[in-house]
Amino acid sequence: MVDVSHNVNLGPDFPISSAVPATSTDDGAADDIALVSLSVLGELRARELRALIRDIPGFPHEPIIFRDITPLLADGAAFEDVIEAFAKLIETLGLKVDIVAGMEARGFILGAPLATRLNVGFVPLRKAGKLPPPVKRVEYELEYGTAAMELTDGSIKPGANVLLVDDVLATGGTALAAANLVETSGGKVAALVFLMELNGLGGAAKLANYDVETLLRVG
């Protein structure tokens, strides 16, 4: 069973010109998740999907809000619509995609069905030691040490346009490593797409050299 939840720090509301403005949750509180590109499905449907993301204040501790996307993924029609929103976004941007690459592990959940929808292949970007040789590898810095990411050598053809997919853009370190890994393997990063961006953590700025798109923005 895959844990598809994540933690988000509380933050101020952020005006986004390209987003459907946040209104309120069922309990009347201001909603700090803006719909951004999810609105390609229409505002009503986008809000229905937003309502499937559980907000759990104080978990695991204050002032964290735990954003649980499990109900969104567990609803077949909603999950399908999320994948369709990604596909519509890619079509609107006119991106040429030869292959989709998903970051371990939640990027697999979103990336594989999106690859099927786009009629292209899928490549998993794994943590170090999960793939047999030969592999391509990049190391990257974490707050308290280093980590490494690998892909099977030859799985990305030279010059291939690669769409990188993950569930959350936070500080951007893992996503930047993924982009570097694609380029080290001879591919070209068509874009990086995320279900959610956590505003205020600097992820988009770290990826300023790439096309970065998100369906939802938190904070």
Descriptive report:
This protein has 219 residues and is of the alpha/beta class. The chain folds into 2 domains: 5-74, no CATH class; 79-218, Rossmann fold (3-Layer(aba) Sandwich). 27% of the residues lie in helices and 32% in strands. It has 6 helices and 11 strands. The protein has helices at residues 43-50, 70-74, 76-93, 106-118, 173-184, 203-206; strands at residues 5-9, 33-34, 54-57, 64-68, 99-103, 121-127, 135-142, 145-152, 161-169, 188-198, 212-218. The longest helix has 18 residues, at 76-93. Residues 1-25 have low confidence and may be disordered.
Look at the structure and give the CATH class of the largest domain: Alpha Beta
What is the fold named in CATH at topology level of the largest domain?
Answer: Rossmann fold
Q: Quick one: overall form? A: globular
- The total domain count is 2
Distance between the termini: 29 Å
For the sheet with most strands, the description reads: 8 strands, mixed
The helicity comes to: 25-40%
> Given the structure, what is the number of helices?
6
The helix/strand series, from N terminus to C terminus, equals EEHEEHHEHEEEEHEHE
Mean pLDDT: 86
Uncertain stretches: 1-25
| Spatial order of strands in the largest sheet | 2-11-10-9-5-6-8-7
Beta strand count: 11
Oligomer: single chain
